[in-house]
């Protein structure tokens, strides 16, 4: 709520245009306060207020999108005491909390419950949590759109981050847990999941090849960029076009396109996102890969297609991942431009230029 309080001076008329009422949201309040604000906090605001008055803004939590059911979170851990505060807090926030205490039960429970977020404990099942994550990602009922968080003891190493990223883990969460911080992350990931679920599969998948469409690849690339930021690593995009005798392979027909798509899928990692971005153009988005790695990926793709390939590539570092969706579109565009330049210059591969 908004209220005014005197600092020892007589009450004055309220400034024109200022009416008490609820704040419209955190972003609006941040514009008022000219700085970061925590939901639930009471912050002073003096700009445009007569001397002797202070405007107080009490922030609300962002409004959760309308759901037909409570958001579901699946926690796979045998730690009861360490997670008791988290479970109680989630219940108070309106979450439906599902618990699994054995590694063998995670996949089955996830398939039946369809959770919005999955939290795995690195110590569950003698440390096979990354295998569980890979199995979840491979299951079509779970797929890549369900955020997976992994609870880890101590500070993870770079190797731990890369292994987790390639296994489909969105973020590593250190223990002991900061309950308030974890709840904030879970709220954010639920928003991502709900937004993704609201998009029709037809808008995300290319009808001819079964790969991502341009729109679907951009959305998935945005998710990978945000995930890579949590693991402090890069994301690369390699755009490719098969070519035979200097002519693009689009004239080979639909069967030829499907064949190229299958070869690209066979050459990529499970964590890669592959899509069709033009009549005979494709792109592979790979997390944990920098520009040098992108060139190596392009070479591997060329070898898988028998050397008949042109490619363009670029990469984005974790420091620019705060705007995942915007940066994803820019990354795809730079790789596609590099591919077109490779065609014009008669080169098999070309690096993209930022900006």
Descriptive overview:
Helix 8 packs across helix 11. The protein has 11 helices and 14 strands. Strand 2 (42-45) and strand 3 (53-58) form a beta hairpin. It folds into 3 domains: 2-58, no CATH class; 72-197, Rossmann fold (3-Layer(aba) Sandwich), CATH 3.40.50.2300; 201-351, Reverse transcriptase/Diguanylate cyclase domain (Alpha-Beta Plaits), CATH 3.30.70.270. The strands form 3 sheets. Strands 9, 10, 11, 12, 13 and 14 form a 6-stranded mixed beta sheet that branches. The radius of gyration is 24 Å and the shape is elongated. The protein has 355 residues and is an alpha/beta fold.
* Major sheet: 6 strands, mixed
Q: Structural class of the helix and strand makeup?
A: alpha/beta
DSSP helical segment count: 11
Mean pLDDT: 79
CATH level 3 topology of the largest domain: Alpha-Beta Plaits
Q: Roughly how much helix do the residues carry, as a percent range? A: 25-40%
Report the sheet-strand fraction.
Answer: 15-25%
Fourth-tier CATH superfamily name of the largest domain: Reverse transcriptase/Diguanylate cyclase domain
Tell me how many strands there are: 14
Give me the CATH architecture of the largest domain, please.
2-Layer Sandwich
Radius of gyration, whole Å: 24 Å
- In the residues, how many domains can be counted? 3
Shape: elongated
- H/E series, N to C? EHEEEHEHEHEHEHHHEEHEEHEHE
Low-confidence stretches: 1-63, 245-251
Determine and state the CATH class of the largest domain: Alpha Beta
**Alpha-carbon distance between the termini?**
43 Å
């Amino acid at each position: 709520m908004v209220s005014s309080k005197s600092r020892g001076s007589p009450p004055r008329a309220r400034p024109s245009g200022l009416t008490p009422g609820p704040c419209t949201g955190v972003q609006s309040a941040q514009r008022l306060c000219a700085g970061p604000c925590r939901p639930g906090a009471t912050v002073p605001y003096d700009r445009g207020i007569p001397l002797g008055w202070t405007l107080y803004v009490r922030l609300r939590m962002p409004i959760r999108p309308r759901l037909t059911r409570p958001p579901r979170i699946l926690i796979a851990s045998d730690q009861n005491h360490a997670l008791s505060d988290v479970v109680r807090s989630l219940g108070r926030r309106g979450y439906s909390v599902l618990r699994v205490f054995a590694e063998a039960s995670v996949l089955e429970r996830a398939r039946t419950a369809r959770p919005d977020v999955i939290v795995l404990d690195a110590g569950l099942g003698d440390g096979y949590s990354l295998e569980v994550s890979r199995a979840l990602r491979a299951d079509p009922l779970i797929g890549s759109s369900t955020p997976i968080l992994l609870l880890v003891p101590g500070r993870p190493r770079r190797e731990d981050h890369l292994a987790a990223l390639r296994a489909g883990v969105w973020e590593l969460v250190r223990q002991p847990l900061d309950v308030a911080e974890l709840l904030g992350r879970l709220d954010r990931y639920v928003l991502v999941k709900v937004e993704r679920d609201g998009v029709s599969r037809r808008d995300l998948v290319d009808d001819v090849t079964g790969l991502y469409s341009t729109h679907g690849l951009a959305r998935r690339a945005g998710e990978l960029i945000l995930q890579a930021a949590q693991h402090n690593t890069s994301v690369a995009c390699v755009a490719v076009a098969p070519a035979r005798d200097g002519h693009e392979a689009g004239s080979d027909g639909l069967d030829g396109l499907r064949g190229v798509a299958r070869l690209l899928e066979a050459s990529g990692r499970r964590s890669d996102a592959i899509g069709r971005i033009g009549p005979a153009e494709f792109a592979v988005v790979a997390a944990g890969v920098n520009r040098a790695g992108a060139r190596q990926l392009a070479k591997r793709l060329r070898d898988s297609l028998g050397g008949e390939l042109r490619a363009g590539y670029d990469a984005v570092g974790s420091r620019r991942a705060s705007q995942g969706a915007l940066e994803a579109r820019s990354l795809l565009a730079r790789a596609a431009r590099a591919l077109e330049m490779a065609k014009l210059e008669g080169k098999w591969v070309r690096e993209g230029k930022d900006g």
